[in-house]
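Re: the 408-residue chain
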Amino acid sequence: MEIDERSLDQKLIKSGKKPAELKAFLKGIILNDLEASQPSDLLALCGHSGLSPKDTQALYQIIYDGIEEALSNGKKKGPAEVSVRSMEGLVLDGSEQIKVVSPGYRLTIDPTYTSRHIFVSDTHIGSKHDNIEGLEKMFDRAVAIGAKTILHSGDLVDGAFAHRDMYLYLRDGCQTFDGQYERVITKWPRREGVTTFFIAGNHDHFFQTNAGVDICRHIASARGDMKYLKSESIEDVFGRDDYDPEHLARILESKKLGSGRVGAVRIGPDHLPPEQRNTIMMMLHPGDGSARTLSYKPQQIIKNLTMLLYSFENMTNPNGRRIKPHILQIGHYHKADMNLLRNVYVFQAGTMKLADEFHEVRNLDNMMGFWTVEITSKRDGDIVRLAERFEHAYVDPSRCSRTVVSQK
């Protein structure tokens, strides 16, 4: 069974229902059935929802997932507050009396879940060739398709001081760390519920190379909707309480030594809690030059993927078995393509920056745009179906730097 919460919500709205209110109502019915250790009546749920039996099964699974998550966290929302002693059915109520609660009746054994995401890279904010207007349109597109996650594979900013004449290609006020930092935190688009996860690129590291400052870390500190994967990895260590201090210190030092140009995040449908989103998305920003053939660099990276995998402590499936990522997103080359290599979906994420003199004089590709990606996956994260579309970036006509001259 395929579960797509956005599609179900649209059907409910079309039939005159309010999704949030209906889900709360059905949750009460399902909770009562679970406490009575009886299966829910599918036809009755169909009558309440106005959906087909197949869609109602999917809606039941979404609600049941929420109940199961509340149980595993030690709380159950319903007629009474209870805390979990065991997922086998034993729980404690407020008076510390043990009562038996049904572990649940699943309408489907192995559901699949559909989620949508945006893949983007190499925005080079601060360059005279950055494209804030195009980014705004990209975020509008994210809202339109129900994508809550923007994944950015490096070169968020253009950097500075890499060569003597670099200031010629930077916007006024963006020749320094402060200028580019301010432009990102004020101009990077905001949409309710949409979060950007990003890694560093070689241009982001220009400030670190020349001044010892990580601009990505400062941006993430200022914008709660922008998550720098290196910082998130370090914060994860600080949040642990099951390691001895010496071991924790070693892990923390290892993560601080990471370049920030490789990162991974677990993605999945919005209604599942983060710890149950098991599709692993790795992002990489290499440092070498572009190849003439489009797919050559991804093939070489995948061939050496094991080197990257062992820098992650938890590149594992829910059963604890070490695995490859399900998706690899590559930045840096300003190219766009997708191939299935060694059973990994490998994306080159393109760029949102307009071509500049560097690309013109070297005859390099500069594929402007972003990917919209719909992923249908199992609970363990394995991808059942992936539908991708590369969408060309919007460019305001006023940005055109040349004119086709008419003969006089």
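Residues 2-100 form one domain.
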